[in-house]
Amino acid sequence: MKKKTSRHISCRDFMKVAAATTAALAVDWKQLEALAAEVGPKSEFPVVVIGGGLGGLSAAAHLARNGFPVTLVEQHNIPGGYATTFDRAGGKFTFDVSLHATMSAKGGLRESLEGAGVLDKVETVELPELCRIITPDYDLIWPQQNPDAIIKQLSDLFPDQAQGIQGFFDEILGILDEALKPFDSDSWWDKLTFPISRRKMWGIRNKTLAEVLDPYVKDPKLRSLLSVYWPYYGLPPSKLSGFYYAIATSAYIRFGGYYIKRRSQDLSYALMDAIEAKGGQVMLETEAEKILMKDGAITGVTLASGKHLKARAVISNASVPATMKMLSQNTEAAKFNSKAREYLKKLDTYRPSLSTFVVWLGLNQEVYRKVKGYEIWIDRDYNPEKAYQGCLACDPNKAGLLVTLYDNAYKGYSKPGTSTVVVMMLSGYEPWKRFEADYFAGRKDAYHKEKERITKALIKEAEKWAIPGLSSMIEVMEAASPLTNIHYTGNPEGAIYGYQQSMDNAYMTRLEQRTPFKGLYLASAWTKPGGGYQPCLGSGAKAFKAMVKDLADI
Hints:
The protein is built from 21 helices and 19 strands. By secondary structure, the protein is an alpha/beta fold. The chain has three domains: about 10-80 and about 105-120 and about 265-350 and about 500-550, FAD/NAD(P)-binding domain (3-Layer(bba) Sandwich), CATH 3.50.50.60; about 130-255, no CATH class; about 355-495, Polyamine Oxidase, Chain A, domain 2.
């Protein structure tokens, strides 16, 4: 039996959060580029990036832009990982694999896009509202960039809870304000005054979202509404870091949600083009098999084809478990030092996040503005904990549902006379383990039967709650399970957020980009700051930053 990990965050660990937050929001690229310029000649520092998800693409683009010889290898035939698209009906419908909403290219995404050299290549459009929430009693629209309007709406619905509603929003928005303050991790004064200058951050450091809500609201319906975004982070209020929820949700509420125009694939291609334009190499349909070490340092990568790529550093966008497996397959495995062994032992305590079950629908008519809402949360029971259990069981009648009407993002999203809709729920992996062996052996009859059953149930629920007559409009239908996610990404259990973003592995306590293996860095949802488009792009930038700092110190 594994030892239970403490959810207590030490003073020293929590001090790092301000530095991590401000670094993610405001990178001094001139200083970083000056550091990169000190490393030379660049030809002597080849780098291999394993994996072409957003973290890997971001890291490789930063490297290429700063003159490092970089080769990115990606097993799929297109770049992007979950940030990809696919066509059906001869290109009549183009579906986005994962993107629902992210930050603006002029706001939260700016630093990462600018550092990668693609700021002028990516367009984001502001969504019409934050979200629509449908429950048995309410049908709510939360407006963009207007916390006061959301507070008033909820206070009108729950007048006896108005003071608590205001208090909760003051709390999470205040935490965002504190996190945005400059913080010097090398300053003894900043460290000494941290608990005073950042009282809200300090007070929330060891609280779950449920515990953050406790002093403010008791009504279960209101608590469920205030927790509506928990599926974005993969855990229910009783397990989710209150600090993580506060930072991410308050930033989204204050700065708004955006969509990448025309699709997320445009971002991935822009990053790949930027790599190649600066002399980097992108090798698609190429699988990495081993990470090589000699005398305790990275020396290269062996591909599945048997080809060897020399490298002074490797940045892995593959899952951390897959990365460690590739590393262990070389003769240096027996020479891991005690620090490395402790690192591997800690990794063994983490669990992959939930996966997803997704249904993509191409409709034979336009629903633009005929159905309210772009991102529609369906909360059937006012019970996130029950919904989470439904997700673990992949039960379409109990899990929380999300319906996205992509055509309401901007006019012309789909071809004339058609519409694009996605119905999604989070899914555990346990219900799909029984199909695993047959699935990967090509025997999929039983799997397809179960996938069809869940697909029909999700469509029925979406029709009941959000889009009347939906089933009669469907021209094209496609679905994906956790096994589909494994097939395309290789992520253990089809995880979509990397490691589970639990109290002991969320944001400030999450894995660093730097590892105890000299020359090996990580850039993905499995590391700081976590899952999502902006965090993954930032993870790639942070991996580049860690590598450059290490090289500059040589």
